[in-house]
Amino acid sequence: MKTKMVQYTAMTVICMVLGILIALQMKNVNENKVTADRLEDLQYKLIDTANKNAELNTRNAELYQYISQLENDYAQGSASIETIIKEKERLAIFAGLREVKNYGIQIDISCSPESLIRDSVIRTFVNDLRALGAQAISVNDERLVATSEIRATASSIIINGNGYNRQGTFAIRAITDPSKEAYILSYLETLKKSVLSDATLRNDQYEILFQPVKELFIPALSEDSLAFKIDLLMPKTTGQ
Amino acid sequence: MKRPSQARSGFWQTPQKRQSLFLFVLLFLFGVIVTNHVTLVNKNREQNNLAALYKTRQEELDAALAQYESLTAENDRLLELKEAAIAQVLSQEGQPGLMDELKRMQALAGLTDVTGPGLSVTLNDKPGFDVIRDSADAIVHDSDVRHVLELLKSSGAAALSVNDQRITNASYVFCIGPTILCNMQRLTPPYVIRAVGQDPETMAMSIQNDPMLSLRQTPEIGLVVLVETSPEVTCPAFAGADDLSPYIDKLEVPAA
Q: In B, residues 210-249, which contact A (CB 8 Å cutoff)?
């Protein structure tokens, strides 16, 4: 009888310890789900958010200063309308509605008589120039804005609704930061090699030349251009 | 005389023998788990540090996100105040018409929310993408996002956004490791591209009939492309609207 009691007690104890160990094991398995990759992702998000906060802080401080200035001017009856006109001009420049000039880079892309310029090649250069900090870009004197299309048809490339011969030379002009000239030229050289290598695979023969220009002009885009659809952009007035 | 099989089954017929076997299995299992547990203890020390660090970073991120919310709300408030202050000044100067011009410029520059008929295109990696088994075409690349944007521009989009980042003259879409950089923000899949345009059906067709996207959606590749038209889609204003200097400080307007 006593032996049986000892046996049952021993079994119960062993089963309990086993249960605890299994629970611990399960907990470990869950903790193991935290990997270095997940931590890295989290750290990226944290850095991004911290950067955004720093930027927002600066912007809020500047806004606060601007509003204070306007309110002071108003209170003193010396409202500086010039400040507002200046802001309107800045908006127009950003929107691409003003001709602009400065130091920049010009890229000329041409092809052999058997080849055609691809729209993707022009788009690649445009996108990468923007990533390199270009503040204004034109292709064949067509100012590029957010909704400018660069699309190939059989014989033309359509930009802002106007067609350009795919066998002609495409001149991309961009106003960039002169202090980054070395980096930009080196980047463009790498990009050029990659584009030419892709073109060779497709039996296309391109010539790509680029150079810095001390002063280049980039034309404005008219508000009437197909690229702007002002009727859809303006908020709808209600109650009318 | 018992046959050998009968002898074997008879061995477990007494309760004592069954108990011994049960005890043996239990102790064996116990031994295995204890050994495994001891082996894991060392590994887990490192893992516990990682888990603790993860928890700390998560708390820091939560705090940073809360701060972001509050700064964004403050930014919205200041922008409203700015508009009111400008209206006040213009009214004092007897030039209320300038406000309309200002709003028009803001709209053309992409600095206002735009709501209207349009569509959303969702690009996502193949579900359960396996880096060894699946093709690289099964994940979304920056060039895919650019391609969709280009198709939408060509089919009449008036305003565009990618994961709520408004596409402006200064925007680019660029690959940084497994993420995409747009307006200096790191974006992760799924990429939701929204477009406002007069004819959502035409825009949708341009995506649905695109040969490259059709090929990538085949079961062998498995890229996810979802198109949904809607009578009302919103593309938010460019987030850097209140400070344009970094985007135009190199631009000089030639004298007339």
A: 240, 242-244, 247-249
Distance between CA atoms of A130 and B217, rounded to whole angstroms?
A: 30
CA gap A131, A229 in Å, rounded: 25
Token pair, residue A189, equals 């050289």
CA distance B65 to chain A (A): 7
Name the CATH superfamily housing domain B114-235: Protein of unknown function DUF881 (3.30.70.1880)
Residue A104 and residue A88 share a domain: no
> Count of domains in chain A?
2
How many CB contacts within 8 angstroms connect chain A with chain B? Answer: 255
Interface-testing mutation among B78, B93, B251, with chain A (most A C-beta atoms within 10 A): B251
Residue A55 and residue A137 in one domain: no
**Do residues B237 and B171 lie in contact, with contact meaning Cβ atoms separated by under 8 Å?**
no
**B32 part of contact set with chain A, CB < 8 Å:** no
Question: Smallest CA–CA separation between A127 and chain B, in Å?
Answer: 6
Residue in A closest to B102 by C-alpha: A88
User: CA B50, CA A38: separation in Å to the nearest integer?
Assistant: 10
Q: Does residue A60 lie within any of the structural domains?
A: yes
pLDDT in tens, A118-140: 999 999 999 999 999 999 999 99
ipTM of this complex: 0.74
Given a cut of 50, is residue A75 above it in pLDDT?
Answer: yes
pLDDT at A106 over 60: yes
Domain spans, chain B: 1-84, 114-235
What CA–CA distance (Å, rounded) separates B250 from B229? 39
Per residue in A171-200, pLDDT (tens digit) is 999 999 999 999 999 999 999 999 999 999
Q: What are the pLDDT digits (tens) for B206-245?
A: 999 999 999 999 999 999 999 999 999 999 989 877 778 8
The reply to whether A137 and A180 lie within a common domain is yes
Structural domain span for residue A178: 100-218
Give the closest-approach CA distance of A116 to chain B in angstroms.
19
Both A104 and A212 in a single domain?
Answer: yes
**Nearest CB to A102 within list B179, B196, B251:** B251
The β-bridge relationship of strands B191-197 and B114-124 is antiparallel
* Amino acid present at A41: D
Point out the residue among B54, B150, B252 whose CB comes nearest to the CB of A102: B252
Q: Which residues of A touch B101 (CB under 8 A)?
A: 88
Tokens 């052999």 belong to residue:
A112
